[in-house]
Amino acid sequence: MFACLTRIPRSLTLASALQNRLKPALTPHVHRIPHAAPIYRRTFATSVASKETSSAPSHVAVIGAGGNMATALISGLLAQQTPPVIHASSPYLHLLSHLPESVKAHQTTSNCEACEQAQLILLCVKPNIAPSVLSEIASVLHRSQNDPVLVSIVAGMTTASLEKHLSLPSQPGSKLPIIRAMPNIPATTQSSCTVICANKAAKETHIHRAQEILSAVGTVYTTDESLLAPATGFSGAGVAFVFMMAEAFADAAVKHGFSRAQALSMAADTIKGAGDMLQRKQHPAILRNMVESPGGVTVVGTSTLEEHAFRAAIGAAVDAAVEKARQMGDS
Ligand SMILES: O=C(O)[C@@H]1CCC=N1
After folding, report:
1. Residue 155 CB–ligand 1 contact under 6 Å
2. Can you give the pLDDT at residue 329?
3. Sheet of 149-152, strand order
4. Considering the chain, what percentage of its residues have pLDDT values greater than 90?
5. 2-23+237-330: CATH homologous superfamily?
6. What is the pLDDT at residue 54?
7. If you measure from the C-alpha of residue 155 to the centroid of ligand 1, how many angstroms do you get, rounded to a whole number?
8. Into which CATH architecture does domain 30-225 fall?
9. Beta bridge partners of 198
């Protein structure tokens, strides 16, 4: 019987039509960042700060443009109403072959050339090559007339380390504005949870510029640098823990007779549905209690998860990932 189950797109169901009609009434808070009217979650506290004036940079350099996260960021920027001019640099230009002509027109193998006109430089390279790239572009950024801000997504690299590699021996005290960011891979679908912090040289205008650019791929949280390693372990890496849960759901569904394709699709729908409800700021325990009928099915499952220390396992995984992120920052 399961073999004939097909996935009905949400848009075709009566329930979804009703749900969409009800949405405005059910969604008192803005959770997504509309591109036309940027609103950022500025801290981990309750505030949702709005930005008065647009500070979107018109020229953005993307260094290491061939990688997954850089590709996601470029796609998000291009999807904006008024995309910036993107100066994409990579030593391997064939990695940029999928990009639209508007980006290809400004692609380069020279990191310095990419930075020349940029008001914001997105550093999307691997940690092992970041020091040499930073030394390479330092003089261009120091002499730039565009008041550039560097936004680094290099995992584990602290603002102090970024400052050190960007410093010029001739101007030892001169510090450039730097934003350190930890996006996560749902940036690919413009639903990243991105956590950022700024160095002392970064002014509000630089922070706004970074928020503006990073909000193209999801929600941006601004915090202290002390929380960047936890963010790396929790949201940067944590999304992989959710993918692992999806695998486990799908394996279990296959065991009970679903095809692999159905099982994976249903796992994705289940996790997305849970995420959508959580986005309405309802507490997860309340949502769980809504599903747990007295003497019913769900409570047997959730109590089995407790017996298998599900929550402790998630906590331990996050702790281990945070510890590793801290070690990477120290190295
Ligand atoms: O696993 C890693 O090292 C990076 C950090 C966060 C996501 N990926």
Report:
1. yes
2. 76
3. 85-89, 59-63, 120-123, 149-152, 178-182, 192-198, 218-222
4. 70
5. ProC C-terminal domain-like (1.10.3730.10)
6. 62
7. 6
8. 3-Layer(aba) Sandwich (3.40)
9. 179
